[in-house]
């Protein structure tokens, strides 16, 4: 099935790549804030940077849209009530397109408030993409923001970014490690996404916070240990982590921490998604390890903090 994803405009490249990594680099069409790609998976409970999912029906030139609508078999798609929605065009009305579909239905029935089928026409210059609305992306993760958890850590990762980082591993399931787990931001989302989760942290207080937060959200299967990130021993399908940073921690100490972690991690996994602070010379550090940068994304947090999500293999 060909699907169209409506992407979050705040970072279109990241939103696009989140889906492409999950679909293993299948061919796709990217236009405006939409991604058209072949998929049989339900990502409505996984994605962090998308809004809605549609089933792609057909594409048309703007000049031939009416003809295309009239030829389409709407009875095979619309069984009860329907309505039409338009994106990115101010001149063609929903009423006009709806009337064309109406004329080609045996038992037409429009319901603007609560339709059984919603047909979208997405305009992209002279192209028009017709699709059927499937679902909104589940954004219940918004209720798990750091300040809403029972145990708060001020630098804990936003759940939306945590989800994106997990999806950039390309994994549908498996074992994930966060060796700087803190209060559990990444592990909470990985738990909700069905992964087998392990977390390390050097500080006992953070380990306790992480366990409390996980259990608060009903995630009871986990392996959380007080452990140094440079002593990773077990094998994992992926490592996803937000590296520690801070104004008082800059310099050689953190560079050494990052380097030791990267070297240790290479013995345990073949894929990682790591968030570095913008001021770190992460490319130089990575260059002297066995890791290779596959992709990277700049994330603006606020005026004094930018981060880089780096995909490594």
Give an overview in words.
This protein is an alpha/beta fold. It has eight helices and 14 strands. The strands form two sheets. Strands 2-3-1-4-7-6-5 form a seven-stranded mixed β-sheet. Strands 10-9-8-11-12-14-13 form a seven-stranded mixed β-sheet. The longest helix is centred in the last third of the chain and has 14 residues. It folds into two domains: 135 residues, VC0802-like, CATH 3.30.2130; 173 residues, Rossmann fold (3-Layer(aba) Sandwich). Helix 5 links the parallel strand 8 and strand 9. The protein starts with a strand and ends with a strand.
A few lines on this structure:
The protein has 313 residues and is of the alpha/beta class. It is built from 8 helices and 14 strands.
Keyword list:
8 helices, 14 strands, VC0802-like, 7-stranded mixed β-sheet, Rossmann fold, alpha/beta, 313 residues, 2 domains
User: How many independent structural domains?
Assistant: 2
* Strand-residue proportion: 25-35%
Q: If classified by CATH, what would the architecture of the largest domain be?
A: 3-Layer(aba) Sandwich
- The succession of helices and strands, N to C, reads EHEEEHEHEEHEHEHEEHEHEE
Distance between the termini: 30 Å
């Amino acid at each position: 099935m060909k699907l169209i994803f409506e992407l979050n405009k705040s970072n279109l490249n990241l939103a696009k790549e989140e889906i492409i990594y999950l679909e293993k680099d299948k061919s796709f069409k990217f236009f405006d804030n939409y991604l058209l790609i072949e998929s049989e998976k339900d990502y409505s409970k996984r994605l962090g940077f998308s809004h809605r999912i549609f089933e792609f029906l057909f594409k048309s030139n703007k000049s031939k849209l009416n003809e295309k609508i009239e030829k389409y078999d709407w009875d095979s798609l619309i069984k009860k009530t329907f309505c039409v929605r338009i994106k990115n065009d101010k001149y063609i009305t929903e009423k006009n397109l709806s009337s064309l579909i109406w004329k080609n239905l045996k038992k037409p029935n429009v319901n603007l408030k609560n339709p059984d089928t919603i047909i979208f026409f997405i305009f992209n210059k002279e192209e028009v993409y017709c699709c059927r609305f499937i679902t909104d992306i589940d954004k219940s993760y918004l209720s798990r923001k750091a300040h809403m958890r029972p145990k708060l850590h001020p630098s804990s990762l936003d759940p939306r970014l945590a989800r994106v980082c997990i999806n950039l591993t390309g994994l549908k399931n498996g074992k994930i490690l966060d060796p700087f787990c803190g209060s559990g931001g990444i592990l909470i989302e990985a738990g909700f996404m069905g992964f087998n989760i392990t977390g390390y942290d050097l500080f006992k207080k953070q380990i306790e916070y992480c366990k409390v937060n996980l259990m608060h959200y009903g995630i009871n299967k986990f392996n959380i240990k007080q452990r140094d990130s440079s002593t990773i021993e077990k094998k994992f399908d992926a490592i996803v982590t937000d590296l520690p940073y801070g104004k008082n921690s800059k310099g050689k100490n953190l560079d050494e921490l990052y380097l030791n972690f990267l070297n240790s991690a290479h013995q345990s996994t073949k894929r990682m998604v790591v968030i570095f602070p913008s001021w770190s010379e992460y490319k130089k550090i990575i260059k002297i390890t066995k890791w290779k940068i596959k992709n990277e994304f700049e994330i603006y947090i606020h005026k004094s903090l930018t981060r880089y999500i780096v995909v490594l293999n």
